[in-house]
Batch of 2 targets.
Target 1
Amino acid sequence: MPIASRIDEVRSIVRRVRGNGDSVGLVPTMGALHEGHSALLRRARQTDDFVVVSIFVNPTQFGPSDDFEKYPRQLEKDAAVAEELGVDLVFAPTAEEMYSPDSCTYVEVGELTEELCGAFRPGHFRGVATVVSKLFNIVSPDRAYFGQKDYQQLLVIERMIRDLDMPVEIVACPTVREADGLAISSRNEYLTPEQRSAAPAIYQALQKGAEAVRGGASAKEAEAMVAAHIENEPLLELQYARAVDPHTLAEPGSAGPPILLAVAAFAGDTRLIDNIVVEE
Ligand code: PAF
């Protein structure tokens, strides 16, 4: 399995693959591959002839107080996981390969990026949309695979490809959870044992909220219920608990499902996010 670090290498490999009439699937990641990524890669392996995983800790999506420096980097281990899962190509560029020093073009996706996480992480989704556009231009995949754990990211990318007519099909894959419900994330490895024990309260809170919505609670009532459950856990600090329209991320137009319940909370310095969509 080749590991390419240069854009022109990837382009020439993909050109050859396409010449054979094979389809190309891309799983964009920042590395530190875990079970959530494995599920995306397995899904891609089932669907596409040629599977590419990109591994790039993208500086433009981290704010000044985010964890860019300490974000786990483990290319050798990741390459072994990718190989095991039957990936055909790893694309692991340097920051210099991806961004020239005078790079000044960004992709901005409007209102969707101002809600939820976007309200607390200015510039984050601009960085995500920009790097994902670049990856699409480099790899030109038929399909790209994203996890529903990053619900807002998924929505932003779906909107971007629609608005900019990008010829890529987005495949959304369900959140993978630990046995106690904690959504699997590369950031879970920062948690102390005590924080790790406290963290499943986030999913429990979402489940309580979802149950309340199904039982007729309003969005505001569900939000309050989710918030109260998390605030009850001393090792978690709630950033937001919102119940919104799953398509627009705005206040729901009417009572009842569909509703997206979304949470961000800190365990120490580690920011954890999770969500549940209560379907109609
Ligand atoms: O979800 C992620 O890991 C990143 O935001 C992504 C999509 C790879 C872009 O850097």
Target 2
Amino acid sequence: MDDRIIPKPLLAQPSGGRFTVSSNTVIFVDDRSYESAQHLVEMLAPALGVKLHILSSAPELNYIALKIDPLFRGLGDEGYLLQITPSCVDLVAQTRGGLFWGLQTLRQLLPTRIFSRSQVGGVAWDIPCGTIEDRPRFRWRGMMLDCSRHFMPIEFIYQWIELLAIHKMNVFHWHLTDDQGWRIEIKKYPKLTNIGGWRKETLIGHALSKTKQTCDGKPHGGFYTQDQIRSVVKYAAARSINVVPEIEMPGHSQAAIAAYPHLGNIGEPIEVWTSWGVNANILNVEESTIQFYQDVLTEVMELFPSQFIHVGGDEAIKDQWKASPRAQARMAELGLRDEHELQSWFIRRMDKFLTSHGRTLVGWDEILEGGLAPGAVVMSWRGEEGGIAAATSGHDVVMAPQQRVYFDRYQSENNEKEPLAIGGFTPIEPVYQYEPVPAELDGKFAAHVQGAQAQLWTEYVPDPAHALYMTYPRACAFAEVVWSGRQGRDFPEFLPRLKLHLQRLKLLGANYRPLDS
Ligand code: ACM
């Protein structure tokens, strides 16, 4: 029965026979599981063409029982036990989250056409009998989406989350600010979106292209209102997904400086960036700038209940600090030796601020360079070294190495066959074979690896269909990396499951890159 499921469950024991879902099947709930039952009803309704009834007293047979039992035997926060007999289905978990993942498995055990968005006739909605016991390997199973380089419509954010849920991923890292656009409404500083949310045009072709560079002349932009963000966070939470916002600082901040030039170093107005890459613009280190960003984080914390708040910290070019008498004076005043320490001072201020509000700072691995802030979690993207260094100094880490889990890279060695991408080559198999715990770490250090995260940067990804083409099916392989055990990971065994799974994505209307035949 686990030959139908992605990500592969921990244990599956078929017992023969089938349970058939019909319009007479009822969902049996306890006080805690009513919301999950509603979710199941909505999940099955389009293809079945009926909404199953929810009951709180047990029928004799032909029911799906959903039970949340906080004392339930050792499957952890997110585990579940699914038992299927010819007369009933029993799903039990310790939490609503565990139950939700169990529902995803149940959905995949049904004939593939259950994923259809319209009624399907003539199908026996059979589920194979047996027992599935399951829980995730890692607690951080993340996917990052960059909505700065290209603004993604709000409807797509919902689809993105829906697809994460199907793959039992539980962190949506939302990259909301960068040089090319500020995408989150901040009430106190409206120019961040009114000005910083728009660029006048966008580079055509690759930023490293040797031929003469031109822009398209078309304004690009947009932002998410606070109401929209609250709805997204709620929608994700109902699907056991935590939304981790990222507000970049002190680099990757050109859009913010364009909106509020006093945040910069050069004393001249600049525009929201129209090209790609890394540039010299960096926030200044005035107390007023620290205050400005803490004001931003205050609104961010109101919107996102997430324990983790990401402050970027990557690719901060220090040239403007080196050239600025003010920054140099600040370094002397603070007793800092170099600009790396100045960056660490900046991040530490944010760490202290977030910690005092009960939150945890996350940053890209550059935040290690001038000394790591005490509470920080490190996201290791420049390979594994940052993650190893952070874990051995007692910090939690999330592994996100670009060579293995950056989905803006090419999916074919023959780039001519693919849409323009950032470069590199990361086909599905190395994603599938990726091991998040570096071999150098053992014992208590390995335990600092909270999980892994795949990234979709969108410089060369202009719209939702293209975003899904880059993400799937690599994300299906990645889901198994972070959910399933390390034992028995076998690419030839995965492929037929993936082929079946791609039919589901098709029925859902989700774009993906076809497998190489
Ligand atoms: C990154 O890719 N600059 C985190």
